[in-house]
Design brief:
Layout: H1 2-30, E1 33-38, H2 44-55, E2 60-66, H3 68-78, H4 83-87, E3 97-102, H5 109-120, E4 125-130, H6 131-174, H7 176-184, H8 189-226, H9 244-269
Antiparallel strand pairs: 1-3, 1-4, 2-3
Helix pairs in contact: 1-6, 1-8, 1-9, 6-8, 6-9, 8-9
Length: 272
Amino acid sequence: MTIIVLSFVILGVFLSLANNLRFKARELSRNLTVVFYLDNGRTAADLSRLEESIKRSPLVETVRAVSPEEASRKFLKDFPDLEEVLLNLDANPFPPSIEVALKNPALPTERILEFIAGIRADPSITDVQFNREWAERIRSLSRLAEAIGFFLGGILVLASFFIVSNVIKLIVMSRKEEIEILRLVGATNMFIRMPFLLEGFFLGIAGSALSLGLILGLVKLFPLYLGASLGAFQELIGFRYLTLTQALALVAGGGGVGILGSLSSLSRFLKI
């Protein structure tokens, strides 16, 4: 039971991490934002002229200028542990920027890149950040988390299969005399096998169901344990509980492992 629980807890934890990363990626994709970083030497007139140029694009919904001071305050809010580093600098390291929210989240990437290229031709712009690229990177991380979870969980699920198989083997051997009596009184093969199959099935179901409770506890307690130590990264290295489909799949998987382990054992050690 312990091995089954651990197997599905590890798988569930990585699925929860992947769920959180996918959620963040969807949020980024829904709120399409392009950030243009400007040269510190540019005047207010240059900034105003660039804002007006950006607003004329039919793709743009809102335009907001962010001063170096506001960028610094946002950084300190997200990374409070780095306040000392920022205060020791001679000057504010953050450049002014313009945040542009796009109207349609489903816009083709090619159209957005054309718009970015047109604005970036302005000599006052030094760099551009496009959050759809970040969304793709976060999705890649979610796929990696899922793959690691299936790999580690798969190894332990395989171990669970062999453990269930050996448990059923021991039960069969301990009830050898009862099985002989059942044969003599005319019990069918299915009648003799069914209790062992049910035992493996309920063992798997109980283990996987218990793992769901442990995963829920981890999802709730992990943010409390971390506190604010990770700053903005805490939004990414967090957990979002399993979907109903994932939870049912985990429980069904536990039952399946139990039945397969029982069948494997019965086919080798219960010759009827």
